[in-house]
Each structure stands twice: as C-alpha cells, then as structure tokens.
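Here's what a typical entry looks like (Reverse transcriptase):
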Amino acid sequence: MKYLGLILDGGWTFGPHFAMVGPKVVKAASALGRLLPNLGGPSAACRQLYSGVCRSMATYGAPVWADRLTAKNKAALHAAQRTIAVRVIRGYRTVSWAAATALAGDPSWELVAEVLAETYSYVSGRRALGENPTLDGILRVRRIGQEALMRRWGEDLAVQPYGTRVTAAIRPVLERWMRRKRKPLTFRLTQILTGHGCFGDYLCRTAQRQLTTECHDCGAAVDSAQHTLKLCPRWAVLRQGLTSVIGGDLSLPSVITAMLGDDESWKAMVSFCETVMSQKEADERMREEAADVASIRGRRMGVRRRRYLMRLL
C-alpha cells in the first residue's frame, strides 16, 4: 500500500519502498550530476545544495522506517548517496562510497535518518504528554544525535574495505573536514587524495587502460598518487615549494591536517595538484595518440575512441 509517499508492505520491511526510492534518487542524482562537471561548473556550495536535495528525497519518512533498515535497504541508500557524492567531490565514478562520502562531508544517510527519527520521537513524545516541546529541548536532542552520528560514522568508515587510504587520513579530523569553509575540492586535488586518476597503478588495475603499473617519469614499479606526491623525482622542484608551506611530512594524514590548518596550505596543495596532474594528463594524451599505442589503451568511448579507430584505418 502506498500512503503519503511511503510504500508499506505486510511485514513492515520497507523493501518495496526502497526498491522504488533507490532508483528514483539515483535518477535524480544522475540528472543533477549532468549539471556538475568535474572541471568548472557550479561552486562547492551549489554542489552541497544538490546533495541535500537528494538526501531529503532519500530520508523522507525516516521516523517510520529508520529502525527497520536491512542490509539490502542500506545498499540502496549507499548507491544513491555515492552517485551524488562523487559529483560533489569532482571525482571519478570508480571512487568508493566510503571515500566519496568522507571527502564530501556527507554522513551515511541511514545515520541521518536515525537522528531525524530521534528528534521526531522527542517532539511527538512531549506532545503526547500534553506539553509543547521547547526549541532548546529540540536543539539539545539534535546536538546529542549529531554527536552520536559523527562517532558512529567514523566507526563505519574504519571498517569499510575500500577507500581506506582516504578514510584513514580523514577520520581523525572528520568533523573539522566536514565543517570547513571556503576550501573547495578541485578535480585534480581529488585525484591525488583518492588515487583515482592519471596514475599507472589506477590505469592498469582499475581502469584497465595500461599494461603495467610503472611510472613513465622515473621508472618506479608502481606509479600511485602517493608516489607522485612524495617520491617521483620529476616533481622535486614543485614538491619543495609545497613542503615549504605545509611541512616536510607528505603522508596523506599530515597533508590533510595541514590543509585544514590554514588557507595558505590548502592553496599550496591545490596549486601542486593542478600543475602536476595537468602535466601527467597531457603526457597521457600524447601516449594515447602515439602511432604504436598498445591496443589496451584504445578501450575508450566517445571522441578519443573514434580518434583511436581512425588511426587504425
């Protein structure tokens, strides 16, 4: 039975409800995603607004179903949340749910639903006793719920099997990261943070567009985001400029802590990522356009795919 936007089933499992809501929110997130290109497009504040729209759609009626979420229902929420979170952070579609939501500062929607349910329970309980809930009381319940949400969100991120490099770095400063102001993520900064970008390790293992994981610049066995940030000798001069601002420790947890410390450190990291990743992307395009390009590199769609096929004629 459909009642006030909720689909009720005989066992009160809300499986049919999430079977309907999940694709609906994913469709809305995908539609909004077309307005949020990785390069350019709306600001971080606008992206957060669009994310809030999808969150409101997903958590509609939360006081009714919050305590009856099954693993399948949570998976439906995660799929929708990941779709919009990836657009918020300007990331690749292969970024995991844990990494995308941590970078976006968007807590698990099932935890948000529990806070909404607790607030509703307090208000309805007061009114059932013939009392009018005070604003201070409501804010207190919300504050307690938010504190529990942040604690449980951190615990959930700690046990996620994917995106561990990002989540391990952000969890110690999760609330500061979530509350930061005037520090937007860029497409190339997100590549360094997530490791999903123009790196040999990613192109070989995940995107399957490269035959080996080696670094084309220094010959290292594995070209990863951390190798680019900390070790690759090609970027030594740029790296010196970065360390002069944020310090010599270039492990990701230290880098994120420094970025949150002041605007200058954030801008220095963004500048480093923009310069380095732009050059790596240019080099990658040159290798793709080479006459002796390996066939695995031609597994693309769109313009690059057509150009590759034209070279074979």
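The chain is about 65% helix and 0% strand.

More examples are in the samples folder.
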